[in-house]
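ok trying again, last paste got cut off:
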Amino acid sequence: MLDMQRRKAMKTFALLGSGMALFPTLEAQAKMLEKDVPQWDEEFDALVIGSGFAGSAAMVSMMDNGLKNVLMIDKMPYLGGNSSISGGSFAISGTYIQKQDGIEDSPELHIKDTLKSGKSLNDLELVHIMAYEGLDSFNWLTDNGVKWKWVSQSGGHSVPRSHSAGAGSFIVRPLQKRIREMGGKIRMRIIMDEIVYNDKGHVVGIKVREKYEFKFDRDFDENDNTTGITKYYRANAGIILATGGWGSDKKFRQQMDPKLTPTMLTTNHMGATGYTIQKLIQDDLELVDMQYIQSMHVTSADEGSFGFAYRFITRSYGYGMMVNPKTGRRFVNEITDRKNGSDAIMAMNEGGINHPILFMDSVGAKTVDIADLQRGMEADAIWQFETLDEMIAKFNINKEPFLDELKKFNEYIKAGKDPDFGRVFQKYKGQTINIEKPPFFAARPGPKIHHCMGGLKTTPQCLVFHKGGYTVPGLFACGEVTGGRHGYNRLGSNAVLECVLFGRKAGKSIADRYKQIVRS
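nice, full thing came through this time. structure:
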């Protein structure tokens, strides 16, 4: 049944390659050919477009594999994109941290959890690669200066396997430091306008605009931005696309999923637009799973963008309890996956006027870094209460049902079984945590558009498919701009795994292609 669903979804999005009915704002145009380039302004062995987890990993990887004259560009005046502001957790089994904490895990269990969240619409080969080869990429990050703080159990995972280094910037910065140490070039404020092909259909370079001035306005259509100076970069071995998703693009994301209205908030930085993916559609490249765009329920309804409270909220799902204030009752398994959690909240919050209350006690709050807790409180997205009555009054919680629910919940924790929602109770320092010791800390979760599961169809080696069914020589892609890894819904912290692992593969693939070109 699931295979049939996947084939149906794939058939639907094969339409992307035929008429442009699903993209009414796009106009068909010819690919840019090398003969139309007036002159090459600069020449490189290879180019990477995008500077997040995937792009940074690709740069280090291709330099590890022998390339020297390489460049990574980003259109923004800062590096890292969504990666830098993300939670930065890497999901994988078999690490030294899991072993230290006595956590039993396996690639098979990781695959099972991933497919369950993705409704088995994932590309199984790619999921196997992530689960079985991801440990090598985790250790590679460690060797490249990433320092891991802890492992936790993100929603949808059967065991704690989400390894955190802090925010995503604690992963991309060490990689970018390594790029510079190895002699790689990194440039900002350069946007790619066109991929340049030779007469055989091979990628040979890109058309860009330098000194690009991004418009920091969520309502501005980036297709109308004409700033910058046009240049042409030749790429002897080709290019790696690591341009990320399009969660901030109100028009384009709604074409993919009509439910994602312009008023919905997003965790994405403003640069996460559909500008590049629309260019790739015009180049007749194969796309998969574009209709699947994830909302994330670990962000606060009281903050715009990603905000500061998400670390507290993430921990509270693991060590706290969430209720509907009107009923005083729980309404979902707090550690369900992002899709189910977001859907449950949006079904009960009455269009955003009845936000759920998620809280834990002073012992649970110890699982949160004190700086993260303070930042959330300073942003008025986390509140502290000396008594439950204070919290009840603040949020107008239905008192008697709430107190009854809390008593029952604490009994479930002691028994180690949740007959209402089947929740698993996490341990902190070897023990589960009852919610009973003041002060109490609370937040109001509010789902925001977070991750695009769809994108370019690639091989496991990150070669990009044309809609005709063949791969395009010299064109590679990795990270959120690609599809197939996550299916219907991405399991939390699988993105860092995917981006780093396939970023490394893309880097090696383009380095191998360069060596083949030199030999021939």
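cool. The first strand starts at residue 32 and ends at 33. The two ends are 47 Å apart (CA to CA).
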